[in-house]
Here is the input.
Amino acid sequence: MSRKHRQFKGAEVSCCVKYFLFGFNIVFWVSKHSKFQVNNLGGFDPVWLFIVVGGVMFILGFAGCIGALRENTLLLKFFSVFLGLIFFLELTAGILAFVFKDWIKDQLNFFINNNVKAYRDDIDLQNLIDFAQEYWSCCGAHGPDDWNLNIYFNCTDRNPSRERCGVPFSCCIKDPAEDVINTQCGYDVRQHVELDRQRFIYTKGCVGQFEKWLQDNLIIVAGVFVGIALLQIFGICLAQNLVSDIRAVKANW
Here is the structure.
């Protein structure tokens, strides 16, 4: 009798693992639901991307939470396999990004230039570009003259815009003494020679500045990706551990 009792006690579902997995999914679920809306990025509507990502995260979080609470091995297996697939895709994307980094750089140039053209067409896109140029202290993909691609900022004689031969205010070097943003600081600035421009605006392109930022923060960026990967592996291990416990308990019934 005592041996049977010990066998049953050794094959029980760990409440610690069960609720830890539940909490893991809640955190994982909430952390993925950040909202940022941009109506058009170079012809691609990112609303579909957010719908797909949101749908995947909802299904994954639902399977993990309900599977852990209800001790449902089917949902737990689905959760662990799906999370493993996401981990594999992230790993593959990282390897491909390293191998095809020149191609990715070309695509980034194409992406930025396309959205420079559409700068005034969408307020969210405009805010995104302004944020990028301010954060990385840059202007255009390769330099301020990339703004010739935009119908409002190009330097052609037929351009009636007051912003002709200018750049957005986010290209301007900020004066720490100014409390109010001067949105007209970039007017006519590209009519000056290169040396004069450097006094008023950032003259480095955002592609180069982004690369420099990655190099300067390589350890932090790598640490974030490694941390996310370890969390995913941890989640898979928790789910598999819980499945093993449930199977062991069922085997004693």
The chain has a mean pLDDT of 80. Residues 138 and 202 are 5 Å apart (CA to CA). The chain has two domains: 2-101+218-251, 105-204. Residues 218-251 form the longest helix (34 residues).
